[in-house]
Structures are given as structure tokens and as C-alpha cells.
Amino acid sequence: MLRASLCFFVVSFDLIARFSPAAAETFKWLQLGPSGLEARVVTDAPGCPPMQLDETETSMTVRASPGETFPVTVCAAPIHSNVHSVAIAGVSLASPPVTDPKRIAVIGDTGCRLKGDHIQACDDPAQWPFAAIAEAVARQKPDLVVHVGDYYYREAPCPAAVAGCAGSPFGDNWPVWRTDFFAAADPLLKVAPWVFVRGNHEVCSRGGEGWNRMLAPYAFDAAAICKTNEDPYVVKFAGLTLAVMDVSKAKENELDEAQAQIYRAQYSALARMTSGPTWVLQHRPIWSPGVEFAGHFLGDNKTLASAATGVIPSNVMLILSGHHHLFQTLTYESDLPVQVVAGNGGDFLNPGSPTDPAGWVINGVKVKSGIDLPGSFGFSILEKQSQGWRLTNFDTLGQPHQSCLIDGRSANCVAK
Q1: What is the pLDDT of residue 293?
Q2: Residues 79 and 136 placed together within one structural domain of the fold
Q3: Can you list the alpha helix ranges (DSSP code H) found in 140-202?
């Protein structure tokens, strides 16, 4: 009788497991924006999961309801400065408040490219290493993670002849955002709060809906699912202000004066929006080439150069960007902020260019010193020092390589 009962229990349990709905998948994180710190969730469950702030259980609100191509619910909840622990669906997230980050991780351009002639082997971790990079960053235990933009890259179907990406989803939809960003970044999402920067892959004609539903700093509007331009905002810490700008549509190869007027006003406004040492976070760099071709540097942004020249306040010490798929740090002969490019997080890397940028002239601006590292995937860590910040570039396994000490508007760089 006991054996029969046990057999019945095993068979019944097997039937329940096979025919019950799959467990809900939930991605959860903390992010900083114009209203401060908030918790966000993307879930395929029918509602928002429970959240616990310190010892108090509270509710999240729906930020974005499921849509035709995004059959998931996006939830949000503000996290006030007196909260010291956050748990969502029983999983603890990074402990707030974030007032004085001393280790800031920087990643960018992390998706896997499927478009036109640029087809990446997304199933090969050596060819698309973002998941490994996210795990390596998580092991560094940063206090803050900055993503400098370009999350969405799978814009076209994988060609039938290419085995390395067979069956990959494509288009601005939840399967792509899940695969290109959330599933790979999941180990890192829980480790520290994030600041998300909008890239040119998140403009309305590309991954704009996914960006606005899930990561954008402002409220989601179902009646206007994509905003062309987002207002800049600041995140203030002890002794450091981050100014986040949306330059995702800034024309690169030619000056667009109408755009330049908008960005010029925004750069000028930083003088009243910020105080003390400030870093500008924007996807597109300004006086930075992505590649050298036929003796010419390509990739500087003529619209942003026109907008920023003579306008960026003197308290802006650093511009932190992606867009070029390499690691780069540039100090200029002119009195300009140090430019750091950390766009080597997963997408196709830029072809070779000289590793020593001293003497480069980019859109009329001369590089005094720095370092240029094409052809190597990785991420960066900024560590607060008694004087300035130590910037280190790491490979996909977390091994350190190039390092720069950034002090004011100068970066002293060495290769390890």
C-alpha cells in the first residue's frame, strides 16, 4: 500500500510539473534617475511582485502594461533615502542609499549585432562575451554601474547560412531585449544600482519602444511609446555629480545646426544644474575618432563639437561615452574635459588604430596624451583616490590592462 501511494505521489507530481504553467521570469534592479533611486521589474507574471523595504512590505506600481510585442509587465517603485534594504520577490538587491560611490563600473555597446553585412555569432561566447563581462563586473562588487548606451542590436534575422546565430530573435520586442540585455546582465543587475544612458540604437526608429518601456528615466506614456529627445538630468553624490544627456540622435558626419542649438542650450544649462566636480554621461563622444581610415580619423561628432565648444562649464571634468567599440581615454591640449570611451562591452569591435593618440587632431582639437585600445572586449572600473580617480580597463575575464589616473581635466595613462 505504501509503495502504491508513493508511486501515485511521484506520478501526480510529474503530471503537475509537466502541465502547470511555467514559473514567472522576473528581472529586477535599482536605477538612478531624475527623481532619485527607484526599483524596476520586468516580469511575465500577470502582476507586480511583492517588495520589501527594510522590514516593511510594500507594493510596486505598473509602469508599462503588456503590449503586442512586449507581453511583459514593467513595474516601478521609488526608494527613499532612509531605506537601507530592498528585496523583490524574496531576492535582495543592492543595499541603498548610494551617497558616495567609490567603485563605479562602466560598460557599453553590449548587444549582439545582426544587421546587413554585420552578422555576429551571438551563440559563441568568444564572439559575443557580454554575459561573461557582466559576471566579471559583478565579481568586482562595484557601488554603481553605468551603461553608456546601445543595448539593442538584433535588428534583422540571422541568415540561414550562419550557424552562430541560428534561431535568434530580432526586432524591437521583448525576446530580443531579454536576450540582448536582461538575461546576460542578470547577475550584475542585482549587485549595484545602475545609471542607464540612451544610445543611438535606442532611438525611436530602432529600439525606442523597449528603451522607453523598461529603462528610460522618465515615465512611460502608452499613447506616445517613444520620445525623440529626453531632457538632461543630474544625479548628485558626495563630491561628484553625474549629468546624463540624451545625444542619441546627434548627427555625426555633418553639422546639424538645429540639433546643435538644442544641445548647446543643454550644455550651457549644466552650469546651473551642477556644482562641484561633474561628469557628463552621453552615448556619443565629441572629439574622439572610432577608426583611422586612409590617413583620416572618422567618428568625431561635428554637431556636438559645435554645441559644446566654449559652452561646457569648467566644473565638467570628464565625458563618459560609448558608441565607438573600443576603450579610449583622451586628454586635450585645449582646456576640455577628459574623454573616456568604454564601448567594448560585446558588439563587433572597431578595427585597428594607433594605440598612442598623442598628436591626433580631431575636428580642430589636438590630443595631448591618452590611450587607445581597439580590438579587445572588456569593461572599465573607476576607483576613487585621495586625488582624482583611477580608471582601469579589464578584459572579459576581469584581468586588468590599461590604467589612467584622472585628476581634474588630465589623465595620466599607462599600459599594464
Answers
A1: 67
A2: no
A3: 174-177, 183-189
